[in-house]
Amino acid sequence: xxxxxxxPDADRxxxxxxxxxxxDLREFANPKFYFASRRWAAEACGMFFxxxxxYGSGMIGDKDPGTxxxxxVAAAIGLLLMGLVFAFGKISGAHFNPMVTLAxxxxxxxxxxxxxxxxxxxxxxxxxxxxxxxxxxGGAWTIAVAAPSSNVxxxxxxFWEAVLTFGLITILLSVVNGAMNVGQMSAFALSGYFSVVIxxxxxxxxxxxxxxxxxxxxxxxxxxxxxxxxxxxxTIGVFCAIGFAFFLRGRGAVGLEKTLTSVQGDxxxxxxxxxxxx
Length: 278
Hints:
Layout: H1 22-28, H2 33-63, H3 70-92, H4 98-107, H5 112-137, H6 154-175, H7 186-205, H8 211-221, H9 227-249, H10 256-264, H11 267-270
Helix pairs in contact: 2-3, 2-5, 3-7, 3-10, 4-5, 4-6, 4-9, 5-8, 6-7, 6-9, 8-9
């Protein structure tokens, strides 16, 4: 039987997300493929649909100029992200971005052994999305490559990717914190942030905030011109956001169990008959 997670005493300083109980390890760090595969499937599926909009909108716009506007893309991604978080948040935590996965691991809410699996699943989802849009819509690989306007240098891309990713991760770490009592309501915060950022910066610097989004088409198109900026920038943003999170809230988390559920999902709770009780 699962033991309840006890909150630290009110007069005791909260210094860490640890220690984890036996129940925590079973519920949120279970290494069994039965549970891990469902988290991977959720991440791959969510990434697929997000990239379907990202890559597909560019290819449709190239074939039929004027049919897809930046506002339409911003609204589509924002609304889709909201739906995906509600759909898959309970399964995997709805990361859909290697920078989000990295941030959770650095914050101490995600076991490092899970990171590679999430990253591979996200890569698979993005790759399938690019293949589908390319062969069904018919656009060139290069159309999907993340690229800034002619007025922005690679260093400028790196700067803006760092700034925008910092904002994304800061908001995310705030809303999944158990003390906020918002749970999957983080979907509204994330969808709003993405919509505004895409609307304001997509035409200027490309807006990735997600290295996988940039890496996949760059490989297929053999175009690595600004790829480093779309990888280094978000990484810098993540580390800055983690430092800011520790400054704001210290090393601990109020409502630990709820925080871990938001980060990891609770696929074990959805499939209790398969729960590992050892």
